[in-house]
Amino acid sequence: MKLHLNHRKALYALFFLVWLTGCIRDKVTRQYTIQSPVYASKASVLANIKASTPRTISETGKIYWYGKWIFLNEPGRGIHIIDNTNPASPNLKAFIELPGSQDLAVKGNTLYADLFNDMLAIDISNPMQPQLKKRLVNVFPDRQYVAGYYVDTSMVIVDWISRDTIVDASTDIWGMPGFGCINCFTANAESGGSKSSTGQGGSMARFAIVNEYLYTVSEWELSTISISTEYDPVIINSKQMGWGIETIYPFRDKLFIGSSTGMFITDISNQADPVFIGGFSHARACDPVVADDKYAYVTLRTGNACTGNQNQLDIVDVTSLTAPSLVKTYPMTNPHGLGIKGDYIYLCDGRDGLKVLNAANKLDITLNQKINVPDAFDVIVNQDLLLLVAGDGLYQFRIAADGKLSQLSTIKTN
Predict the structure, then answer these.
(1) Contact 241, 220 (CB under 8 A)
(2) First and final C-alpha spacing in the chain
(3) By three-state DSSP, how is residue 333 classified?
């Protein structure tokens, strides 16, 4: 029996050595595209704010509609200025380079935009000759790091250099098992709403203007900024709102704030001092929100940093602002931004395009129309016009009495 046992141990040892040799010989690798930042001094970037000649749109981001102008953010790079005098033939007029920009809003002759963790007030009385008027420092402390790289008070990231690299999948680039590739981006990596008499933004916005105040949200706080003197914004207060704040949408004397865990309702009857009055919780997911007198419309989606597992539209009764209640949930493909007009919801359902939903009966909404566009991201509804941001460009539509859309124009990305 002992002899048989020793033979068995020897066979096990031999098998282990063959298996280990095979693992060493058959090395498993993984290919990444690594993005390395290009830095410049913040002073030189601020001194160089100007309108350059129009350029093709490489990537679409958040939008703001003000009078005859459309302002389209190209994430991390700047803002396209579009003359929309004729919605059937919009005209790219200029591009303002603003490294690290994501959000924007306009009041009078002033454009408010972020530059990483700072906020800028830019005179656009002549949109072709913008002038920086003021910088508010560290309004967005959560933007201090970009893809793991630190942005300090003196240097900012102005570009990225891409290079492909192959790493050992068992150890990754850190030489340690089990660690992922930090600051590595795969090819399928996924890359707001304000509404006031001064202009209008989409449901994905982090800026909102109401009368003489600009409200902004970072990952964890709501800031109130006086813009009674347009070129001279002054921070009045900042309030903690919990973690995972994403979007802000004003309706009359209320702010509807979307977070990764729910929707908050803030009263701005005293516009200088927002007061939290109610909320609606959901499972963890990103959630833009728009609202009217009776209902809030909230989308939840997967496939992003919010790590949720739901793709749906929630309709929430907000007649009791202190105790909102869920009316009904509708499954969606991958919903992003949305807008409303009367009984119709215009919902960006990601790869499934733009959906026009008849919501006259909140318990039984129906699909009225579907526009096939890639990666539908956000919309602005402006009277009988609709502006859509999609993965391949900026679309404009005319809204008919039955809610259906007819396309007027497209500005394609390159």
Answers:
(1) yes
(2) 75
(3) coil
Model confidence band, residue 80 (pLDDT cutoffs 50, 70, 90):
very high
The residue type found at 134 is: K
Burial code of 364-391, b = ≥16 C-beta within 10 A, e = fewer?
Answer: ebeebbebebebbbbbbbbeebbbbbbe
Sort 257 into a burial class: Cβ within 10 Å, 0-12 / 13-18 / 19+.
buried
pLDDT in tens, 82-102: 999 999 999 999 999 999 899
Which tokens belong to 188?
């399928």
* Residue 18 reports pLDDT greater than 70: no
Tokens 């098992």 belong to which residue? Answer: 177
Helix (H, G, I), strand (E, B) or coil at 341: strand
Q: pLDDT tens across 328-372, in order?
A: 999 999 999 999 999 999 999 999 999 999 999 999 999 999 999
Report d(CA 250, CA 73) in Å as an integer.
20
**Length of the chain, please?**
414
pTM, full prediction: 0.81
- Return d(Cα 129, Cα 125) in angstroms, integer: 8
Instruction: Specify whether the CB–CB gap between 100 and 151 falls below 8 A.
Output: yes
Q: What is residue 279's predicted lDDT score, i.e. its pLDDT?
A: 83
Distance (Å, rounded) from C-alpha 78 to C-alpha 103? 10
Residues 6+ apart with CB under 8 A from 163: 33, 34, 36
The angle at the Cα of 252, spanning 125 to 135, to the nearest 5 degrees, equals 35
Element (H, E) at 24: helix 2-25
**What are the tokens at 326?**
């869920």
Task: Tell me how far CA of residue 73 lies from CA of 60, 81, 107, 396, in angstroms.
Answer: 7, 9, 17, 16
